[in-house]
Fold each of these.
Amino acid sequence: MSASRTERLLNLLLALLNTRVGLTRAVLREKVYHGSAENDVAFGRMFERDKVELKQFGFEIETLTEPGFGGEDPATTRYRIGKDSNRLPDVSLTPAESTVLLLAAQLWERAALGNAAASAVRKLQASGGFSDVDLPAGVQPRIKPAGQAFDDVVAAMHSRHAVRFGYLAGSTEREEEREVEPWGLGSRFGQWYLVGFDRGRGAKRIFRLSRMTTAVSVVSNSSFEPPSGFNARAELDALNELPLQQAVLDVDPGRLLALRKRAISVEEAAGPGSRDRLTVDFRDPDQLAEELSSYGPHVKVTEPADLRTAVVRRLEAAAAFNAAPPLPVVFPEAGPAPRARKRTSEDQLARMLQLVPFLVHHQGLHIQEVADHFGISRKALIEDLKILICSGLPEGYPDDLLDIQWENDHVYITEHLDLNRPVRFSGDEAAALLTGLAMLGDLPELAGLGEDPEQNPLESVIIKLTGAAGEAARMAGTVSGQSVAPSQSQAFATVTQAIKDGRQLHLSYLSPQRDTVTERDVDPLRLFSLDSVWYLEAYCHSRTGLRNFRLDRMVDVEQNGRPVSGEVTAGQDFPARLFTPGEDDVYVVLELTRQGAGIAEDYYAERTAALPDGGMVAEIRFGNADLLPMFISQQGGAARIVEPPELRTAATRWVEAALSQYGGRSPQDAPAG
């Protein structure tokens, strides 16, 4: 859709919004489509496409016919859009409700619903019902859904197209191709699931996204309708948690303290050259296999068989990817290549429909502040404004145009032509906000937002938004998540209070990679989460720098009686960076499969280059090169090291040494690390 079409659609919208009796095709062709259509047939096709486009933006076009003609006569049929057609109702949120809503909207980091959540919040800000608030005590919850598969399924689900993917069946452990009508997505027991109709089996099935073995492809030549009243949460509530099992593991003496901490029994090595035998409770063999794979040759699974198979499968996939032919590395001169789709004129028009009401309620903002709010450049904003000031009613008189000025870089609007209210939430926007709110669980109370027992901001904002979303609220039933409230509630409360009070903390902290417990005094700065794991960003006095600490690895945490030093303050970046770059970092070039391409964003790649198969080459900084073999074996064939060669060799030896314990390939040399 070209910029000229963007302007035409905007003019058509304004014309149909600002007529009480409606406009005929002849008037619209002359006043709105002048010069755009060569003949009546071309105009008819163009007008029908534009009606569909406006409907997708949330505007229903009414068709008015003259009585007595016995049907629709194109010459006399008139068209209009009601002034309240799909407009967002007035929503007034308290500061506590706005804070809770902001927490929910920012959950969807880099996910398909992330842009939808941001758009929904901008609509509320544009309508004037959203208070400008800060996150409490620096708390930033986030979720990272199951990679690219999540984004692909969400897109297909909301466009009502079936999907096709390879799947490792749990019952047979064989890879099979599935074609599924995606009805909904949800998170349970730390995993994301797809609920849908399996066309090959002719029945409803539930699929774990982490067991998809290929990229998700859309079957675009077919469509479907989900069952009436479908609710992903209700479907997944019927899932039973996997039964508790016990893993018997042979572990090198003195290694893997994190695993030993969870062990229910430890049988020490009988003599030199033998290993300790640990018994560990677990439920999900795939989840435990991911952890055990990272430990490489330092652990061997004795039983059960399905856990052993899951570990071997991940190690074999890593070994096979490592053994693939070398890949030439060519990076573009620019920085990281964006994975998101290129912005289009549809994006521009959607932004304009939020921009006008936002300016109405925020008169006189600096032009750069407006651009930053919409996440675009100053140049792109000025291009938007130039189109807007040339748009208006069919008569074309000065008073019939949108009137926007920017004087001394401050933007004002004096004529909005009934675009002063944003359109209703789309299905994606409603799903992003309402599902995010449901996932917050007890977090607002833990963060100090639910101190008044008579006021529950989480419940009240859900009620308000459900009413404002209208029919779109039903789409929230297609996505369901689990609470992101921390399981380490006592540590969370201690850290939150220290941040509020400006007091230092003393930590006893377990580092699984280094197999040590260290004592740290830190200035706590902010809390953030990734899925169910919560982190503390703090200034570490023993390391004299910023560090991130997992709450579930804090053996003990308490205030040490001293005020924070003020050496550093919390960063302004959102989301908080999971890894802090340092001067001694090692630059590593990774090849990532399509399923593993999200690693480039997770680890803040310096440079990236897309591959034809949907994968990616990424240059990433790592603080400790010794941990890279663990990282590669944990990825299970989603990543391999391309450069430097000595690290590639070390990772290959590590994986092969781990496999040799199970009768696989033998390492050429002793394992690295």
Note: Confidence is low (pLDDT under 50) at residues 337-342, 665-673.
Amino acid sequence: MTGTETVLGAPVERREGREKVTGTARYAAEYHFPGRVQAWPVPAAVARGRVTGVDAASALALPGVLAVLTHENAPRLGKPDDPTLALLQSPRVPHRGWFVGLVVAETLEAARAGAAAVRVTYEAESHDVTLTASHPGAYVPETANGGFPAAAGHGDPDGAFASSAARVDVEYRVPPLHNHPMEPHSSTAVWDGERLTVHGSSQGGTAVRRELARLFGLTEDRITVLAEHVGGGFGSKGTPRPDVVLAVMAALHTGRPVTVALPRRYLPTVVGHRAPTLHRLRLGADADGRFTSVAHEVTTSTSRVKEFVEQAAVPARVMYAAPALRSLHRVVALDVPTPSWMRAPGECPGMYALESAVDELAVELGVDPVELRIRNEPETEPDSGKPFSSRHLVECLREGARRFGWASRDPRPRSREAGPLLVGSGVAAATYPVMAMPCRASARTLPDGGFLVRVNATDIGTGARTVCAQIAADALGVPLDRIRIEIADSDFGFAPMAGGSSGTASWGWAVHDACTELAGRLTERAGSVPAEGLVAEADTSGTADAESPYARHAFGAHFAEVTVDTVTGEVRVTRMLGVFAAGRILNARTARSQFIGGMTMGLGMALTEDSTVDPAFGDFPESDLASYHVPAHADVPSLEAYWVDEDDPHLNPMGSKGIGEIGIVGSAAAVGNAVHHATGIRFRELPLTPDRVLTGLLEHEHPAGMLGT
């Protein structure tokens, strides 16, 4: 597109699309420097304990093996900001899968064979890896992830609940979930004796550069981190992970360029996961369906290496008006891998439980679940009392209901059948906070009349390059084809990671400011450009991160139709529709892709994705894509994503809200609520796999004591 067609909002194709589909886009493990070698880690085989010995002789005897690094000979590291990166520094084993060695070899095959040949002996210790709501080690932390207070509320929720005309007191369970990006975590490190260059699969090069400087005692100006193409992350690449630290260690030790590409089976234990969450919800309402009390209490687990508390009770502080509210997080430190961010941390599992409980209350009251949500729309944010910068959840619910044909729905469970199939439909709301962080960007004129924009953004498949170029073209008032954009280079200046649905808002703000400044200077010069060109730089520190008097959130509504096979227990989603209020949509094509991607991930959370912690060994048996079932094409119907026009002047210069995560929030609840409508059975543990559903159907048909009679 050129000319006036390039305005923000246009469905512009991704700039890197052709490179990706033709295979010319290079990812972190694909930089073939002269003399490059490969490294393969050695994971611990005990759930807790210490290494008592390492026999590397057999590995070193293999052809091509160059070195075996362990806690005995690995480079010493500075104190990391993230304790999960204190690799090969101690014989301690905090959990199974913790890396206790690294084999460096001429080829990937030799490195893998060498890792298998390393013999490690341990002194095993007793371990505890099982989360329960009554665990004696549970405590209330100071804060949950994101700096949210672990406990918050107002009024007397217990007293209000006890006197409510309608009540639900229910428990929901979300299992451990894993990010599993298409590209496993990989890094290629090059050390020339003075300068370190890293090609990484990271969601943010600034954070990687900062941590590497701390760990290896280098000044940041001696480190360059590049991440030109990243094959997904979903939060697991949001901070530096072991691959980059191990690659740099090996490069320093051998003097050769080194690539570390983590095997997929190792990812669940070393790059973070969504921790299991146990939810108790107590909702009270008066006879008219207006909430009198909302209480959401969550128990989750963290590792003994680092405290990470999934902030799953936080959405209850945002969603509905109630004179009494309590939200509380409790956490248990176990001998398990360290959890971390996974797409829409907090809001994703929290809204699954909350929106399922709201559906239960609607059934209890005999009120339409769309109408119940509308009746409890708050005037201000319940937790802070701040006015919303914009909140169009009611419009999303009404528009979604219209498009979905909700008015023709028979509210009675089991009211629709198609042979052995039970058909049902469900709804759930969605919310996600609006965030922006400081960033630097530059814009310069080029001799050919074009413009070069540089920002250390990371494109993890979201279309960041394209949207930032659109922002630049809009600010400069020029056709899109005159914008050249370079991203993902730490030398361009600091930038936040691609996460928290804040990437475009943060990078785009700096790009907008730099280009606006350059446009102003061009106007002053009547378009005359000196031979050396013009350059404008922007730093949004103090503005992008300034405190706002408004509560800023995106909202949405999900609708789902399912069939439940009474013979096999299989659940199939036949229709799924989402309507979102996410500020100004900057690219209709990439926005729809993000909404649908989130909805698909929510479908997987609802139906197929499941993980357990093995109590005997302390790790995740479901460690690959054969056992951890990410939805395939056959699982996904034709999804529909729409949005309402939203003009919000209190966000950023573009008026945009994040869209990467709002699509997954609430989508699993919509599916679960549809399954209840189809079957009349309330399943309160995910995923809704055939064995779980079929057991429920049999118990429904044959109550306790009647099976087998």
Note: The mean pLDDT is 96.
